[in-house]
Amino acid sequence: MHTLTVHEVSPLKPFHCLCCCSIRGSPWSFVRVHHVACLLLLVGGDGSEDASVRRPNFVLMMVDDLGIGDVGCYGNNTIRTPNIDRLAAEGVKLTQHIAAAPLCTPSRAAFMTGRYAIRSGMGSTGRVQVLLFLGGSGGLPPSETTFAKRLQQQGYTTGLVGKWHLGVNCERRGDHCHHPNQHGFSYFYGLPFTLFNDCVPGEGSDILADLQKTLRSFTIFLGIGLALVRRCGLLDISLRLLVVLFFISILATVLWLTPFKFIPTWNCILMRNQEVVEQPMVVETLPRRLLTEAQQFIKRNVDRPFLLFFSMAHIHTPLFRNPAFSGKSLHGLYGDNIEEVDWMIGKMTEMVDSLGLANNTLMYFTSDHGGHLEDSNSRVGQQGGWNSIYRGGKAMGGWEGGIRVPAIFRWPGRLAPGRVVHEPTSLMDLYPTLKYLAGDTQPDRHLDGFDLMPLLEGKIERSEHEFMFHYCGIYLNAVRWHPPGSDSVFKVHFFTPNFSPPGAGGCYHTHVCQCFGKHVTHHDPPLVFDLFQDPSESRPLSPETEPRYSEILAQTAKAVERHRNTLAIRQPPHDATGVSNQMTWEKILWKPWLQPCCGTFPFCGCKEDPSHSV
Predict the structure, then answer these.
(1) pLDDT per residue over 476-490, tens digit each?
(2) 165 included as an active-site residue
(3) Where are the transmembrane segments (predicted)?
(4) What's the angle, vertex CA 514, arms to CA 512 and CA 519, rounded to 5?
(5) Alpha-carbon distance 164 to 104, whole Å?
(6) Of 104, 507, 513, 597, which one is the catalytic site residue?
(7) pLDDT digit string (tens) for 324-355?
(8) Helix (H, G, I), strand (E, B) or coil at 50
């Protein structure tokens, strides 16, 4: 059975007391009480709040790599998503909900903090734009503040079930400086990393595959070369020197092969709080286990205010092969996975409703960024999402297809059913929205999001986002301007990725697009589009076609200057915020002393005991 610890008993802020207790079965091992009110609460009550004054619960559900065109209520009429469609019918649907980055790590950092990823050092300067190894030292800095941490301080019980992908350790195995528990989540169960192809035999590798190929070829060439030099007498090399060189080459091979050969063991793991419970994880049963954990978290906390972030492993490749859904959709394995996602969303909604929590629970459904257009193979076909009419996709900078995502809010009795909002909004808006609803009025650092409740409730018609800034790594890629009093939403692109092969709609040669050097084309003057008239970004504006053309460039230039003034200028190795850059090679690459492990490193391996699951 699951063991309830102090991590899941949040301080009850309204009573201004601290109740430190540890529950290991029964009875309580100790209770330390600092105030009489707290003692009375423990003796005479169950810790629940009065229903008349109880603060709302939050259930946030995020799919990985879901395209906005994959969902029925956003225009897909072939993939069946009745449960997601029901959420939209019973709540508010946003049609211009924007991720702060087109890739997992920076987008999720911005979502959690309400700030652009560059402010927390989570923007990349080079080819690697996401964390690649659990044994790396990069991650969301301990100094950052997440919405979970703010709600925890308000007495909420907070849980994360599913994907994290924002780092684990800093300096030694077990310091857990980047771990969800250190960032405000009382309870964590899931993937501290993400689901990669490497996690399933036969699916290939997502981790620096070209580098692996180069190192493998170099090793073979070096071995054969040494043998030929000695055999053919091309150089006068003593047998002793040859043996030394041979062992050096073996050592070099081990050094590069160890991180890559055992990626399933290093990266594909499950943790419960700070304990590794499965290494490598069994992927086939992962969706069921994550869903069960999310449901049980809600059940355990039905009598206290809670925040649950259900961060799903779907639909990042490798795709799941659940027999209950295989062959059921019209879009092959990818469509089967979407329909499984919809079923899981339905189960989460059913859980909230069956416990009588619907009228006091804000439910939110979204994706971390757009679908991955280049992800396909000859066996399965297309494995990435469909981004509807929008240009581009995952990892394509500021193109709309990579950053415009589905977003639905449901709160019966508070939000009018069937409402649709077309104004620009952001995943970063969740942070200030949750703060407001939790009653958090304490000062905060600079935020880039805004409280969405006035817009969701129809109290205002205009978004507070007059400008949005679209980053590709640390590079400002594009700016969105929604002029006051206008329906237009202008997008100004300073550079765009170079698609390959020429004429394609993505970077098929490199699998993902890059943000720098020969991989991009800079535009002077910038490319300008009006998303209201041209949502597909197919017709660039010019002074001849747009009377406000000069004003658009002037206003966005001023906005960029104001935005950059909010960033404290620093010199490398610190980024523009003064925070150490978390996405450097030094922080990303695998370090054996940081590798999470069940057992004695390097002999890591364990299977989750079903009796310990909730």
Answers:
(1) 999 999 999 999 999
(2) yes
(3) 215-232, 239-258
(4) 120
(5) 10
(6) 104
(7) 999 999 989 999 999 999 999 999 999 999 99
(8) coil
